[in-house]
Design goal:
289 residues, alpha/beta, TIM Barrel, 6-stranded parallel β-sheet, two-stranded parallel ribbon, 11 helices
C-alpha cells in the first residue's frame, strides 16, 4: 500500500473507531426505549451489577420497566421484594463462597447445615431457585471433585425435592474465576446425571461459557434439560450486550424460546453508561424476542 493511501485509510479508520467508542457510551436508537414486553422471555436482572442504586429504588424502577424478577437476593431483603411484587428468581445465602464449595468434603458439614436451613425458607417465601457453587480445585482432580459433590449434595436433595426447590450450580470460566471446578457444561452435566434429580440444574451463564467453550446455541439446544437458569453479559468485558461485543443475543434468546424454556433469563452485565438504567432497558429490549 502506498504511503498516501495508507495515511488516508488510517485516518478514516480512526474516525470510525472514535464513532464506535462514542456510540458505546450511549443508547442506540433501536433500543433507547423499552417497548411493551412480548412475554416469550421471563426477564430478570442481577442486582449486584446495579449496586450503586439503593435496592428499594431499583425495585421501583423494575416495576416501571415491567421486569418482574431479580436475581441473587437473600432472605433479609425478600420482604422488600414482596412489597414491590418482584419475584426472587435466584436466591442466595446458603453458600460459603465461590471458592469453598461442594467439591471439598471439609465444607460439607457447613454447607449441609446452611442448605438444610435455607431450602424450607425459599419454599415458604414462594421461590424456587437456590444457587450453589462447586468451589475451586486446589489441586484436586475433576473426577474426585465430582464424586465429592455427589456425596455432599445427595444429603440435601431429598429436602429440596420435598419442598420443590431447585438447587442450581453456576458455571464459570477460568479467566475470571481461575481454578473453579464447574467450568464446563460437560462437567456440570455429568454432575446432574450422577445426582439424577430434576431438582438439581445448572445455572448456564452465557458470558462465562462463551469465554470457556463457545458454541452457545448448540449447547443450549443439545443440553437444555440440564440448564435451569440463564445469565447474560457482553464478551469481552462483561458489559452491555449490544453491538459492541461478540455475542448475538437475539439469536441466543430465540434458541432459548425454541426449546420451550419457561424459567428466567437474568441480565448480569456491568453497565458502563452514565445512565445504567438506560443500559438495562437496552439489554432487556435486545433479549425480548
Amino acid at each position: 500500500m502506498k504511503r498516501r493511501n495508507f495515511i488516508g485509510t488510517s485516518a478514516a479508520a480512526s474516525v470510525g473507531l472514535l464513532a464506535c467508542k462514542t456510540s458505546s457510551a450511549m443508547p442506540s436508537k433501536e433500543y433507547s426505549e423499552t417497548a411493551e414486553l412480548k412475554g416469550n422471555i421471563n426477564h430478570s436482572v442481577c442486582q449486584w451489577c446495579f449496586g450503586t442504586i439503593p435496592l428499594e429504588d431499583f425495585l421501583k424502577t423494575l416495576n416501571k420497566l415491567s421486569i418482574k424478577a431479580i436475581d441473587l437476593i437473600g432472605p433479609k431483603d425478600w420482604g422488600l421484594l414482596k412489597k414491590y411484587d418482584i419475584h426472587c428468581s435466584m436466591c442466595n445465602g446458603a453458600e460459603i463462597s465461590l471458592t469453598e464449595g461442594w467439591n471439598d468434603p471439609q465444607y460439607h458439614e457447613t454447607l449441609i447445615k446452611n442448605y438444610t436451613e435455607m431450602i424450607p425458607k425459599v419454599a415458604e417465601a414462594g421461590y424456587t431457585n437456590l444457587i450453589c457453587f462447586s468451589g475451586n480445585r486446589s489441586g484436586m482432580d475433576d473426577e474426585t471433585g465430582l464424586a465429592n459433590c455427589v456425596m455432599g449434595l445427595r444429603q440435601i436433595m431429598p429436602l429440596a425435592e420435598k419442598h420443590g426447590v431447585v438447587i442450581q450450580m453456576e458455571l464459570f470460566n477460568q479467566v475470571d474465576h481461575k481454578d473453579y471446578m464447574c467450568d464446563t457444561s460437560k462437567w456440570g452435566i455429568a454432575l446432574c446425571k450422577a445426582l439424577g434429580s430434576e431438582n438439581f440444574k445448572l445455572l448456564y451463564d452465557i458470558y462465562h461459557m462463551q469465554i470457556q467453550e463457545g458454541d452457545i446455541i448448540r449447547s443450549i439446544q443439545d443440553n437444555h434439560y440440564y440448564f435451569g437458569h440463564y445469565h447474560t453479559a457482553g464478551v469481552p468485558g462483561r458489559h452491555e450486550i449490544n453491538e459492541t461485543q461478540e455475542l448475538n443475543y437475539p439469536a441466543i434468546m430465540k434458541a432459548i424460546v425454541a426449546i420451550g424454556f419457561k424459567g428466567y433469563v437474568a441480565q448480569e452485565f456491568i453497565p458502563t453508561w452514565k445512565d445504567p438504567i438506560a443500559a438495562l432497558k437496552e439489554g432487556i429490549s435486545i433479549c425480548d424476542v
